[in-house]
Amino acid sequence: MKKLLSALALFTSLAMGGAQAGVLPVLTATGLQDATGGWGTSFTKTADFTLDANTWVGGSLFTVGALGGSPFVDVQSVLLKQGNVQINWTETLGIDWSQFDGVEQWAMPTVNLSAGQWTLVVTGVTYADKLGDGVQASVELPEPQSLALAALALAGVGATRLRRRAD
């Protein structure tokens, strides 16, 4: 049991070391316009941000329309990279292009990123014939208390298993 509590204390201190709650607004790219008259114009948008320490982060990206309307933006890939490390995001909600309605969403699961400069790369096609459509992406830093609570839950599961083995 002492080993379990020591491991919990170590995990909590490491998890809380570089983490601080908040959202880093990484990329806001509006004003994507299709100059071809409906055939679509490809785009690539990048944004850099720096983490001061190794920390756990998650990410989200949404397409946004002009004046709150449906965006005519088709995101094709989202990735986060640092040197040779590349983390691909997953599309969690796509647009029904036969209806031209809805918002596209992409997400990055919570991962431990190393300190330093990171680059977010978003590629896609815009069909918007007016200014204002685009994408908005952010990286979320979890609250240290949430990480500590998760560690406490894992310790509880471990303690229950040890108790069952002893019986």
Give the key terms.
167 residues; alpha+beta; four-stranded antiparallel beta sheet; elongated; disordered N terminus
Mean pLDDT: 79
Helix content: 10-25%
The total of helices stands at 2
Please provide the count of β strands: 9
> Percent of residues in beta strands?
35-45%
What is the succession of H and E elements? HEEEEEEEEEH
Main structural class: alpha+beta
Sequence stretches where pLDDT stays below 50 over 5 or more residues: 1-20
Main beta-sheet annotation: 5 strands, antiparallel
Give Rg in angstroms. 21 Å
Q: Given the C-alpha coordinates, what overall shape results?
A: elongated
- Kindly, what is the distance between the CA atoms of the first and last residues, rounded to a whole number of angstroms? 15 Å
How do the strands line up in the largest sheet? Answer: 1-9-3-7-6
Polypeptide structure, described:
23% of the residues lie in helices and 45% in strands. The chain has 167 residues and is an alpha+beta fold. The strands form two sheets. Strands 1-9-3-7-6 form a five-stranded antiparallel β-sheet, covered by helices on one side. The longest helix has 23 residues, at 144-166. Residues 1-21 form the signal peptide. It comes from Pelomonas baiyunensis. This is PEP-CTERM protein-sorting domain-containing protein.
Concise account of the structure shown:
This protein has 167 residues and is of the alpha+beta class.
